[in-house]
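To fix ideas, we close by showing one paired sequence and structure record:
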Amino acid sequence: MTRASAIQLVLAAVLMHAASAARADPLRLRADALGGTQSPAGLIVLEADGKASATTNAEAIVWAANDSADVLVIALRARTADGRIGGKVGRFVASLGALRPVQIDGASGRMRLPHSFDVEAIGGVPVPPAPSFGHSISERAWDWVAGGRIARRFGDYGSVGIAMLEQRDDARLATREVGVDAGIALTKRHDVATRVAYDLANPGLADAYASLIRRGGGVRAEVYAGYRAASHLLPATSLFTVLGDTPSSRGGMQISGKLAPRLELGSDMGLRGAADELGVLLVLRARLALDDKFASAITGELRRDGVGEDAWTGARGAARIALSHSLTASTELELVVPDRDRMRGAVWPWALAALAYQRGPWQAAAAIEASASAQYAHRVDVLVSMMRMWGQP
């Protein structure tokens, strides 16, 4: 998938590491990847922070850009009251452990078995690069994707899983991957996590990541190392992600904690290697809550990233305000100063404004995004999302 895409796919499993940073956000962007190499196909999901207590829900997401509108997600999800069996049918993004996510028209299911085993399976037709229900069945008759994962849980200490996925385009092998993922709590304060994905169709390492986490005294520290090939890139959800996610090796340390009850600070310090070159990765973040529940907050970030001629410096500011009548508004602005402007100007801006609504079983959100970068002199995208829940466990 080209990094020119400004709006990309949803998949929480791929960004488990980022999920902890967003846990208190009533309105958040969940950016998840759709693996691919050519045309962009994906989205950002804006959702209200409702607890998923319902046993059934339906979701629809539409992305409008360049005078067209595409249905990116339209799915029905259901699970048993005890959570042991669940499934999904429709158009959605499917993920299996360490493997790259795929957007499909199909179904997925998960079941908890005796002796702490879990099994998952997905199957369906891959969504074309420009997602739309306008593609006829005959055009996609010989396109399919199928995969499964089995995992073993170890009480409250973690789990280990192995997964495999195969995708066919016009009956020809497009992707075949196997992946292993594991997360183990060594002690009450120390966790270790790792994932590895190997490409069997084009033999080689596709993705690898390992981290050691320590918590204590209100501070979280993580030492990490990883590698990601082009097939596993996380597509753009902003200029920071589109520029920062490149085929490369990476290692460093992240530290975060509260300096005051309403003030959180964080940093990421490391090195990135690509094409036999090394670049510095330096990130400084701050978040100030405007209330005790962090329903309203202001966030700031400074970043230095990139390798060689693709190095850049950026700043981000964001605000989220809880309004009356079950509404939440948010806005975000990024400014990137590239070391090489690529004939697109000395400063590249990216901005997002969003409004979310949650009342009872209904959730809805809308956002408008505008940007300029090395790929586009200007670009505007609109996203609308709606969800409805039924039943209580």
About this structure: The longest strand covers residues 172-185. Residues 1-52 have pLDDT under 50 and may be disordered.
